[in-house]
Amino acid sequence: MKYDKENLARLAKELEIYKIKANAPMAEYTSFRIGGPADLLFMPSDREQLEYGIKKAKELDVPYMIIGNGSNLLVSDSGIEGLVIRIAGDFSSIEYSKNRLKAHAGTLISVAAKDSVEHGLMGLEWAAGIPGTVGGAVAMNAGAYGGEIKQVLTKVEYIEDGAVCSVEPEDGDLGYRFSRFAAPERIVLSAEFSLSPDDGMTKERMKDYSDRRRAKQPLTYPSAGSTFKRPAGYYAGALIEQAGLKGMSVGGAEVSTLHAGFIINKGGATSEDVKRLIELVQERVYENSGVTLETEVKFIGR
User: Fold this and answer.
1) Residue 166: pLDDT band by 50, 70, 90 thresholds?
2) Which of 116, 169, 195, 275 fits a disulfide with 123 by CB distance 3.0 to 4.6 angstroms?
3) Is 19 strand, coil or helix?
4) How many whole angstroms separate alpha carbon 258 and alpha carbon 17?
5) Following CA atoms 73, 101, 129, 104 in sequence, which dihedral angle do they give, to the nearest 10 degrees?
6) Of the listed 10, 100, 177, 276, which one is catalytic?
7) 210 carries an active-site annotation
8) What is the pTM of this model?
9) pLDDT tens, 254-264?
C-alpha cells in the first residue's frame, strides 16, 4: 500500500515522546529472526498510548499493523510499510481475583501460565512453553497438549472501530487456530481466564509438558513454531516425514530433522527461502498423500 511518506514523518513527530524506532529491522522482533525494516515501529506501554497511535495513524492515512511477540510471523525481506504497533513486554501485567487471572495483551502467555501455577491454580499449565503473548494467544486460540485458550477464557477487552469493548466469549467465537478477536478488526487489550485450584499435580504436568517440548521441538534454532495447521485426521509432521522431507532445505531454511512440522532458520535464512520451502513441502505432501497443508505461520510485509 502506497502512502504519503511526509505523513509518516508527521506521525513519527506525533509519537516521538513514546517508544518508537524508524526503519526497525523486523528480524529483531520475530522468533524466526527474519524480516526487513518496518518504516516505523511503535511500542506502546498502555492503552492510552495505543489508542493515540492508532488514532494518529488513521488521521494521517498511514497504514498500520498490530503484532505481538512476533512468534508466529514471517516478515517479508522487503519489510513492512507504514506503522507497526508492537504490543509486547511494555504492555504487560498480571492481576488475580480469587480464581480469575487477568493479563494485559503484551504479557507472555508462558509467564502468565507459570505465574498462575505459582499462585496455586491450574488450567493454563499447558501454555508454559508457548512463546507468544496473551493477545496473540487469544487472537489465534493458541493450544497445546490438549489445552486451548477457549477452555479458560472468560472475558476479552479489545478495541474495535476506535471503541473499547469488553465481552464474554460465546460459542463459535474461538475454534481450532481461529478467533474472532483477531487484528486488524479487533485488537486485544486484555484477557481474563477462569482457573481452578491446583489438584496437586499441576507443577508435575507443567514440567512434563516442558520436558516433552524440549525433547521433540527444535528449540535451539529460530522458527515460528509449527509451520502448518493440523489437517483433519492427520498430523502435519508425520505427513511431511512420510514424504521424505526431513532435513530438506532451501537456502538457510530447513525442515527440522527433530520435528518435521517445523521449518527452522539454520542461519541467514530469508523470507523467500522459507516461502519456497513451504511451497515445496506442500507440493510433495500433496503428491504423496493427497492432503493439502495449510500454513499456521502468518505472512506479512511488502
Assistant:
1) very high
2) 195
3) coil
4) 46
5) 30
6) 177
7) no
8) 0.89
9) 999 999 999 99
